[in-house]
Structure formats: structure tokens, C-alpha cells
Amino acid sequence: MLPLGPGPGVLGLLLSPMERIAIALSPLRDASPQDILAWARRAETLGYEAVFIPESFCDSLAYAEAVALGTARVKVGTAITNVYLRQPTLLAEEAAAVQEFSGGRLLLGIGVGHRAVNEPLGIDMGDPLGKVRAVIGTLRAAWAKGPHQPRPATPPRLLAAALAPRMVALAGELADGVIFNLFPLARYPRALASLRRGAERGGQDLGRLEVCHFTTCYVAEDRAAALHEAKRMLARYANLPFYGNMLATSGFAAEVAPCAPRGSDATSPRRREPSPTRWRTR
Question: Do strands 75-82 and 50-53 pair parallel, antiparallel, or not at all (unpaired)?
């Protein structure tokens, strides 16, 4: 995860050197809670700006609180906390508690997740854009007016994960920053233009918005093995409608096409995993 701090404008955000680097630690089957805490402490020792916790079949805020209590300086973030899995006032209270326990170090990254995760739980995603707008409104009001407890002395910084231009614009309008995950370079000019439009609509200073570039890396002595795993990861993301559509419109339509059944487009929710070897390197 590469957060690029405030800059003079869209072009500055895109071209400024990346002076701050965070790391995301996923609590998957091969990473115990104790591992996450140990790695977070190590990241703090090494000088990372922040430790982010994804919400991949885990409670991102519970892990964020544990990391906050086990560290002293490093910022603690979620990337992302699924807004459909929590009642909004409960989310406000949980985030406020982590903010206070951490001494004001929380970066609350929110997003809508995926239909493949939400629908099996009986969740109708409805209007994701409207959902994020409503949740941000609830969070802001709860932190500023109560009656929810605790009332954070300083509200957490709020980052919105976004892929589509309208969601990027919403992040610019209402949030303190945006999270871009798996964005090809070709996607940035359009995305940053949308961020600018949203900031103007919301009366926000574009230079104060945090732009977080979420980049997945595979590190191994065997380059071929790392490349294979990276392609498998891309194949899984391409099966998700939001990401499949984003990748297709960013110049990777040929790679995304095998993910969808015949006769369907890149946004079809019914997908099959393509062969990892179909993904080319650039």
C-alpha cells in the first residue's frame, strides 16, 4: 500500500515522489493474529507510515484495534471495512473506539465489498453509491454530535475505496481521501480527474485529500513462482464484476474476457477463473 500524501493538485498527486509507504497485512489462513501483531511491530520498527488490515473473512476493525494497542507510532488503517456488514452507527462507535485507543492513529478505509461476498449473506447491495454517501453522513454526524460513545477528540481520517468514476468523485466530495486498488497506469488520469470534480463539488481542498495506491506484491527467490501467483491473483480479481470491468476498460479486455461465460460482458456476476497464463506482463 503506497499512500501518496497531499500535493498541489491532480498532476502533482500523480507525479510526486512516493515519500510514504504503508504495508497491508492480510489475516489469511497462514497468518495468525499473533503473526499480524508481530509483523505490525516490525513494520513500525522499520519506519513504515501505516499498517493496513484488509477485511478478507475477518473483522478489520478488531485487528486494527489490536495493532493499535500493540504499537506506539505507526498509523493503523482498514482497507477496507465493508459498509454492508455493519449497522452504520455501530461502525461509527467501533471506529471511534479504535481512534481513541490508538491515540488518534486510525485511518478508516471503507468500501462496498463485492456481490460474491455480500449476496451469500442475504445482503442486497442496492445502490452502492447511495450506501457509501449515507454511511459517510452517519459517521460524520455520530463523531461530531453523538450521542454515540466515545466521542473522538479528533475524528478518524476517512478513506473511501473507489473504482468507478462516480465513486471516485464521491470520495473527493465527502471523504478525506481515496483508496485505489489494482489500478493500471492508464486508469489514473481519468480517476484523478474524477477526484478533482468531486472535491470541487464538495468544496474540499484537493491538496488535502489522501490518495492511497494499493499495490499487491509477490516476493520470492523464484521469479517464475512469484509471477505465477501474481497471475492467479489477477485471475481471481478479474472474476469480480467491479474489478473485471475496471481492468477491461483500462486496456486488459483480452485478459478479462475469458473470465466471463460466453455471451456475457465484463460486468457479468457469473464468472469462471481463467488460466493464470493468459495474463501478460508489461
Answer: parallel
Task: Name the pTM for this structure.
Answer: 0.85
Spatial contact of 160 and 110, defined as CB atoms under 8 Å apart:
yes
What is the number of alpha carbons within 13 Å of residue 210 lying toward its C-beta?
23
Rounded CA-CA distance 35/68 in Å is 15
Type of residue found at 170: L
Other CB atoms within a 10 A radius of the CB of residue 18 amount to 10
Q: What is the pLDDT along the chain (282 residues), one digit of tens a residue?
A: 554 444 333 333 333 333 589 999 998 888 999 999 999 999 999 999 999 999 988 999 999 999 999 999 999 999 999 999 999 999 999 999 999 999 999 999 999 999 888 999 999 999 999 999 999 999 999 999 989 999 999 999 999 999 999 999 999 999 999 999 999 999 999 999 999 999 999 999 999 999 999 988 888 999 999 999 999 998 888 988 889 899 999 989 998 888 764 444 444 444 444 455 455 554
Alpha helices, DSSP H, located in 20-87 = 33-46, 60-70
User: What structural domains does the chain harbor?
Assistant: 2-214 (3.20.20.30), 223-278 (no CATH)
Task: Quote the cell numbers at residue 272.
Answer: 469462471
